[in-house]
Structures are given as structure tokens and as C-alpha cells.
Amino acid sequence: MTLVNAVLGGLVTGLLYPFRTLPPIVGLLVVSFLTAIAMLVVFRATSNQDRIAAVKRSIHAGLFEIRLFNDDLRQILRSQIDILRHNLTYLRLSLVPMVWMIVPLLLVIAQLQFHYGYRGLEPEHAVLVKVQFDADVPAPRNISLEAPEGMRVETQVAWIPTLREAAWRVVAEAPGDYELSVHVDGRTFTKAVRTSDAVIPRSPVKLAPGFVNQLLYPAEAPLPADSGLASIELTYPEREISLLGWETHWLVAFFILSIVIAFALRNRFGVVL
Amino acid sequence: MLTTPKKTTFASAALCILVMVTTMGLMAAGCGAGDAAGTRVIVLGFDGMDYEFTRQMIERGRMPAFARLAASGGFDLLETTVPPQSPVAWSTFMTGLDPGGHGIFDFIHRDPETMLPYLSTTETAEGGTSLTVGNYQFPLLGGSVELLRGGEPFWNVLADRGIESTIIRMPANYPPSGSATRELSGMGTPDLIGTYGTFSFYTSDVLIASRDIPSAEVHFVEPEDGVVQTTILGPDNPFLVETEKVTSQFTLYLDPERDVAKLVAGDEERVLEVGEWTDWVPVDFELLPLQSLRGMVRLYLRQIEPNLQLYVTPTNIDPIAPALPISTPDSYAADLAEATGRFYTQGMPEETRGLQEAIFSRAEFMEQSRLAGGDVRAQYQLVLDQFDDGLLFYYFGNLDQTSHMLFRTTDPGHPEYDAETDPEYLEAVEGLYLTMDEIVAETLDAIDASGQETTLIVMSDHGFTSWRRAFHLNGWLRDNGYLRPHNARMENDPGFLTNIDWAQTRAYGLGLNGLYVNLRGRERQGIVAPEARDALMTEIADKLLAVVDPATGQLAITKVYRREEVYASGGYDHLAPDLVVGYAKGTRCSSESSTGAVPRGEVIIDNLDPWSGDHCMDHEAVPGILLTNKPLQRAAASLEDLAGAILAEFGVDEFPRPSEED
């Protein structure tokens, strides 16, 4: 999984590299465009286009019946039932390409989340760093957080035995890319911190190794397997994307753009959606 | 073919006429603003800035920006209102009317039909009929918040002329008037539970937890394994048939070894050390499963060991998602918050009660006051940068509230003056004046940088002085046979006029300067015949003016005004006090008497309260200030004149405007 993440992460970061300093919507538009094309290609290759076309014609026929026999209540009900039945068929036919698309789409979305889901830390804006310990390791005797130049740790460690968690408040003093060092009983673990607002990958959490952890949090290499830590977490502020003046979650913008573009290009690609 | 040119010609002619008519219409509509186009006036309102203190600071060369103003436009005292209280004074400033015209006579009024006191500036009405389903009720009509101040704010005139106005934190303007281009409400804006500020205090100290602290919710909490799970109390849930307060849960994880703690409130997490404040933490109060009320608080971790002490600010209305109307347009509060961060929205944010009740030390109070003042100042920079033309009014209340708590440091004759520690805090009071000077300097710099002709007016609503002696007005009325308590031996009279035997009471005091006759036909249980009112008032006024403070040998009261002498009749006669008591400089109505209690013992006592400075005295003893960067087109000697003088800068001749009845 680490290899897949490294390859995919490199591809997405490389693709977005030219757009990293532009407004986030620009890169997202490009990604949505490419995703729409990929979806159309997969949809055409994996779906039964003839059946879909036939079902859509049947739905249109049902709608036409309702309009034509609008004074016949029984006929309207019959047509509505037919439309519902054809809609279910349409959904069943769409299921096959969906199954083909869902895994690659999930991997891409996981990568995009770390580019578009979070803003960089704002200078002088305090955030929390939390280190979660595994349940089966003893409480640490010595634990500290070291900040590089350009960042500062504002508080003592708060050790919370009931949560098996250590927490600090940190502040970035200036924009930049940093690495925090967590020292636990003689060992050191690091966590990347990004404060610029460019569209670059930033991960709010560094996790212990594991397939699911790497699937959902691919932007940062996992902690060593023998670290005794479950995670190192840093609370990045969430980012909203401006879509024609409407501030929304990037995923909403991504789906709207991908679907609109796919519908716009469906005839050019000869796809019945 | 022949008809087409004719049609074109006709259409062209019609279009020309339309353009001409429209242009003339626009010119006519704009002619009111014609003279004022491009006029810029900035008014800085410094609540409680004292004339004498300011004069001395200027003379000592400590306020160079004020000195520059004094040299260019003049520095005068500004006559304040009767009585010199902030809601009264600011209402007069904005309407150009005396209290008889706007109906605000004190912080609190009483309803003569119920004899219950209430806050004078706003009234919150609950929704009307409700649909009840089991334990739930669904109001069919929403509740409302009504501004009780009468009269017309002067920026209405500007709005009618198409001139922009930005009115920030004007006291007694909650909910906002809606007529300014941009408004943010100020003093009078409640917290989320509808009070002027009720803080919460969480402690494992039994002695503190057992205290009954006014304007506070004190919670006894016991950490279990270093964890405290508790709640912040919100308002009553309007959707429940049975009255029940909504709550917002939070958890505090304590690390006593390092004096640090982690707070978790909903999705929000903070780490703070002992002696630190959090930033604003949004808190949600669930009303129904999918319906919640958003507020925000700041927390101060006072100590963890030997016992926990955690202060939580009153739950403020969150400007990013305001639960109540606090700005015009509605989005303006959010715009400000997004630019400069969340800020105190409660009208009087300085936690004076915390210091009075020893929840805060003076240093802690000063820190909290600095935070509150910092919000206001940061926003001023933004608003000043955005100001283009028209009117900008900006209010600063930090000086007033802090002076209330620290003014004894200016007065070695104050009964609580501490020669060891007070000089340090005298510097803090002077520091506040220096901050106001910096604000004026920044404003002058911005005016210079704009290159545009701008009138700058710096004013205050009243002055300030040391409050040495407290006068139990209701105690004096009792001793002189005008008032009879139900229980003369009650140790802690709860106040609110509840311990008064109305059948044997001819006069009573309520508010900081008000004295009312228990008048038959007006008060619910009035016993004084209307024809006897005049003689009774004369008798009481004469006796009050003869009261000598035994500790000083000086008169305790220097003025007693009849309302007919000082107030025009604007339809609020039933609310106005019959007599307004002007205490001598240094003496003020006691806090107990002002809330309607009848204190036992001596009538005039030393003021030992940390609230050591005040202004609710003879109005001639506490004038405000007026400075301008150039002579005004129309002079203003009093607060009542100032709105007219501001409008005169925009070419407006008459204010207040005659009402329809006039």
C-alpha cells in the first residue's frame, strides 16, 4: 500500500505542481476535467450502452404518457410505476461501471483530500499537537516536543493518562515547511508541518503502519512499527473552495464539476449516461 | 419602408425623454446629498473620559495627539446629561433629545403597574401561540427583541440623504437601528442567556462553590482521575413545555504535575497552562436533535492545585453565526469576525464583577480588560482602513469599565487607597488614556494619508471621579419616614423593591439617581394623592440638599432636580423618576439602594467595593470632553447639541427633526 501511495501521490502532486500557487479551484478544475474523461471512458467500456439507451427511452415514454393522458388518473399511476421500474433498471445498469470506478476514485479522492482538504497553518495561529500511545505500552517516562526555528511550542506537555495522550499547543511564526520532533524515552519521531497556503499535500495525522491507515491517510509515511505510538496528530484548519462565489467543501465542488463536465462531453465521447 | 424611420425617430425621441427624465430624477434625488458629497466625519466616542484628568495629562505632555487636536480645533468640556449615566447620555447624544424625549432615564426602570424593575434599553418578547406535542412546543410566531429607546438616531437623516454611515458599538442601540449603512451593536447587547453578562466559575473549592455570586454561575466540580466533565448553562429551551435550560458539555483533562490542561468542547480542543486564556471557543446548545444555538466562550485556567479554579466568560453571541441581531446588515458582524477574528459581542465585556467578587485579582482583571479592549482596537484599524466617506462613529468602552475598578488609584483620599500597590495601577489608568491618545494619533495619520478633508470629533459621554462614599437613599427615606420596609431587620435585603411595604411608603429610590413618589393612580399601590406630589417632592428635595456627610462635614447631595425642570415631555412621564438626585462629587448612591434594597445601619458609609470610581453624581461634577481637529460649523456645548453639530458638517440645518405630532 505504501508503494501504491508513493506512486499515486507522486502522480497527483506532479499533476498539481503547476497550479500549486494558483487559486485552488484552478487545479481542481483540471483534476475534475481529467476525472470526467476517465469516468466517461470507463463508463463506455464497462456498461451496457444499448440497454441503458433502451431504458432511458422507456423512461421518456413514461413521461410522455403522463403528459398525454393527464386526465386519466389510472394511466398516470401506471406510467409512474413504469418510470420507477425503469429507473431501478437504470441504476442496476449503472452499478457495473460504478464498481469499476469506485476503487481508483477512492484512491484519488484520498490523495486530493490532502491537497484540498486543509489550509496551511496561519502564522501566530495556535494549533494542537497530540501524540496517542498504544494501549499496551507503558506510560512514557520522558516526553517532549521540539520545534524547529520558525515554530514554537507554547505550553508544557499535558499528559492525559485516561486518554493515553500527550498534547501541546504550537504556533508557526512564519510561513514554511517544518518538521516537529517528538522525543519519547530516548527515541525521536517526526511530523511534517506545512504553513504555506499553496496547494500541496499536508497530512493532519501520521499513523502506525496498516493497510486501512495507509489507504485513508496516504500523504505521510507511517510511524515505525515498533514506536509504541498510535498516531501523531496536528489540527490543520479545514479549507473551503470558492465555486462561483459559493464557499463549499472541495469534495462537493469536485463532484459538481466532474459531473457537469462529464455530461457536457458525453456526446463527444459517444457515451449514453 | 416609410414607416420604419418614423418608428425609429419616435423611439429615439422617447428614449431621449426617458433619459432626461431619469437624469433629472436622479439629480433631484441626489440634491440632498449634493452639498455633503465627499464629506467625511469621524467621531470617536471614549466612554468615561474625564475632562480634568485629560487636561492634566495633556498639560504634562503625555497625550501629544490630543494636544495636537486641542491646538487645531479646541478642547472643551462637554456638558453631560441628568443623570450622567452611559445609556442615558449616549441616547441623548444620538437623538439630540433629553431623557424625556428618548425615554431612557437610568440603567433600570420599574413598571409602575407591577413594581418590578427591568433593564431600561431593551425588552425581549417570547413567541406567541405554540403548537404543543407531548413534552415539546413549537412557537408559531418567533420572539422578538425590542429597543425601548425612543427618538430618532441622527444617522437616519444621513440615510435619507444617501450618505453612508458606519456606527460601531453605539450604546443603547441594541438591536441595531437598521438605518445605518453598517452597524454593530454595543452596550446593551446581552449575552446568549439574555443578561448583561453572566460568567461561569468551576471549582473544587467548597468554600468558593458555596458562595452566592451575583451575575455568575458557580459550579462545584470534582475531578475524577484528572478529568472534569461539566456543562455551560445556556438559555431556557423554547421548545420544551417544562422550563429547562439548555446546556453545552465540555471536558477538562488536568495535568496537575505540570499545571496544564486540555479542554474538549464539541469538536474544539485547546491546551492551556495555569494563568492562560483560550481564544474564543464556539459552543453549541442543542435545542432539538437537529436544531442548536451557537455561542462562544473564552476560558481562563486560574489554578489546578490545590483546587481547580476555571473561569468561563459569559456565553457571547457568536458574530460568525449570530443567534440574535447584532449588526446591519446581518452579515456585517461575520465580515468583521472573519477579518480580525471572533470578538466580544456582549455590550460591556470587562469582567468587573469578577474583580468585585475576588474571582480575579487586579492583575487578572487588567489582563481580561486588555483582551476585551484589544478586540475593539483591532477592529477599529480595519473599520478605519475601510472608511471612505460619510460618517464613521466608533465607540470605546474599555476606559470607562476599567476606570470603575481602578480610579481609586488616582485618589489617596479614597478609603481603600493602598499606598503600596495602587501607584502601580495608577500607571495602568494613565496607560488607558495613552492608548486613547494612540488611537487618535492613528486616526490623524489615516486622515493625513487619505489626503481628504475630514472632520475628527473626539468626545466622551461623561467624566469620572473617585467614589469615596456610598449613600443609602432608601435607608435615608426610611429614617426620614418616607419609606417603610416589610422587615426592617432583614440582613440581606434581596432588593428589587421586594422589601417595601407599599401601603406605608410615600417615596422610594431605584436606579443610581432616581427617586420616585409612590403616586396613587400611577403606582400599583400608590398612596400619595396627585395633588400632594408637589409638596412632597419639595419637602424631600429640601431635606436631601441639607444632608451633611458626618465623615467629611460636606454636603452629600448638591443637586435635586424635578423631572419637570430638566426633561421635556416625550410621552415617558410614567417612567421618569420624580426627582433626580445629584450626589456631591465623590458620593454615589449605594449599590444596594440602586437595586431597590433598603439597607440597615448608617445612611452614608465608606465605599469599600473594588468598584472605586464612578460618575453617577451631580452632572456638573463629571463633564465629558470635546475635541475637534478644526472648528465645527455649529458649536456644541452639551451632548444634546452634538448630533446637530455633526449633521451641520453635512449641511443639515435642523436636528432633531420635528415629529409628525409637532
Task: Describe the protein's architecture and organization.
The complex is a heterodimer of chains A (273) and B (662). Chain A has six helices and eleven strands. With 273 residues, chain A is of the alpha+beta class. Chain A folds into two domains: 139 residues, no CATH class; 109 residues, Immunoglobulin-like (Sandwich). The model of chain A has no long low-confidence stretch (mean pLDDT 91). Chain B is α+β, with helices and mostly antiparallel strands and 662 residues long. Chain B folds into three domains: 286 residues, Alkaline Phosphatase, subunit A, CATH 3.40.720; 132 residues, no CATH class; 138 residues, Gyrase A, domain 2 (2-Layer Sandwich), CATH 3.30.1360. Chain B is 29% helix and 25% strand. Chain B has 17 helices and 34 strands. In chain B, the strands form ten sheets. Chain B has an eight-stranded mixed sheet with strand order 2-34-24-1-23-9-10-22, with helices on both faces. Chain B has a four-stranded mixed sheet with strand order 12-11-20-19. A four-stranded antiparallel sheet of chain B has the order 13-14-15-16, with no helix packed on it. The longest helix of chain B has 32 residues. The N and C termini of chain B lie far apart (64 Å). The interface between A and B is medium-sized, with 17 and 18 residues.
Q: Please give the domain count of chain B.
A: 3
> Structural class per helix/strand content of chain B?
alpha+beta
The percent of residues in helical segments of chain B reads: 25-40%
The percent range for helix content of chain A is 40-55%
Q: If helices are DSSP runs of H or I spanning 4 or more residues, what is the number of helices of chain B? A: 17
β-sheet strand percentage of chain B: 15-25%
How are strands sequenced across the largest beta sheet of chain B? 2-34-24-1-23-9-10-22
CATH topology call of the largest domain in chain B: Alkaline Phosphatase, subunit A
Largest sheet of chain A: 6 strands, antiparallel
Largest sheet entry of chain B: 8 strands, mixed
Mean pLDDT of chain A: 91
CATH superfamily of the largest domain in chain B: Alkaline Phosphatase, subunit A
Strand content of chain A: 15-25%
Describe the oligomeric state of these chains in a short phrase.
heterodimer
Alpha-carbon distance between the two ends of chain B: 64 Å
The count of helical stretches of chain A stands at 6
Compute the CA-based radius of gyration of chain A: 25 Å
**H-E string of chain A:** HHHHEEEEEEEEHEEEH
Report the top-level CATH class of the largest domain in chain B. Answer: Alpha Beta
